[in-house]
């Protein structure tokens, strides 16, 4: 779809991607309204962040932690190879709900989010005077809720600096205030399930089609979570079915 300088459309083809959707018009009553160039640019920048940072970093960290934990990698590989063989026998591709049938894969993603979520915290504004653990936050003040201080608190998690996806097999409740990689309350990130789905699909195809050897690298946690050397790995296609 293309738009002329006056905001009109040369064609009204079915949108094929997000650019088409943003350029498409919306109808309000008898008047047609178009997104301004500024709003289009704002939307594109907002969508680049999860596309470039949050989910890709989640995938990278998962490979890092799996590389350092052979037992977890083996169990995750076996789980995904079982699903792949089933899909091959049925002649089917992955469906929307298949990732939910990979419980250990979900625990790996959950543990990765706990240890190295790229969103390290959120800013909030006090709408009234509030006291938290003896500290007064006056009305109108802004404060920073630091997720890592909660996720890596030994009073919330045993051995918090140890990658242990099995901890989530016994504690399946991830909707509590001690686990907030996607925020919480009314500002809960709407991409929560999409991020998990994308990470699940990536891990499924990666571990079932490839083997890899990771070079030594370090997780950097400030100002945002990232790999110091961008996680270099040597990849080889699997030969086993």
From TrEMBL:
GO molecular function: heme binding; iron ion binding; oxidoreductase activity, acting on paired donors, with incorporation or reduction of molecular oxygen, NAD(P)H as one donor, and incorporation of one atom of oxygen
Annotated localization: Membrane
Similarity-based family: Belongs to the cytochrome P450 family.
Record-level GO cellular component terms: membrane
Chain sites annotated for binding heme: 189
Organism: Acer saccharum
Protein name from the UniProt record: 3-epi-6-deoxocathasterone 23-monooxygenase
PROSITE patterns to which the protein is assigned, alphabetical: CYTOCHROME_P450
């Amino acid at each position: 779809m293309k738009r002329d300088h006056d905001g009109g459309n040369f064609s009204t083809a079915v949108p094929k991607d997000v650019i088409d959707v943003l350029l498409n018009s919306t109808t309000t009553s008898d008047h047609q309204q178009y997104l301004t160039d500024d709003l289009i640019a704002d939307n594109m920048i907002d969508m680049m962040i999860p596309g470039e940072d949050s989910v890709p970093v989640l995938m990278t960290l998962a490979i890092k932690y799996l590389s350092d934990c052979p037992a977890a990698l083996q169990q995750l590989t076996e789980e995904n190879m079982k699903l792949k063989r089933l899909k091959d026998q049925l002649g089917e591709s992955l469906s929307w709900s298949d990732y939910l049938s990979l419980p250990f894969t979900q625990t790996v993603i959950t543990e990765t989010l706990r240890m190295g979520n790229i969103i390290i915290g959120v800013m909030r504004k006090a709408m009234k005077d509030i006291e938290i653990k003896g500290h007064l936050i006056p009305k109108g003040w802004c404060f920073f809720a630091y997720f890592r201080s909660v996720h890596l608190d030994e009073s919330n998690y045993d051995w918090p600096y140890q990658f242990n996806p099995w901890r989530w097999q016994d504690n399946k409740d991830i909707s509590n205030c001690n686990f907030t990689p996607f925020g919480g309350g009314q500002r809960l990130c709407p991409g929560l399930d999409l991020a998990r789905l994308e990470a699940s699909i990536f891990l499924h195809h990666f571990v079932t089609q490839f083997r890899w050897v990771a070079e030594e690298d370090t997780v950097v946690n400030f100002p945002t979570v990232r790999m110091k050397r961008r996680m270099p790995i040597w990849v080889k296609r699997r030969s086993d079915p």
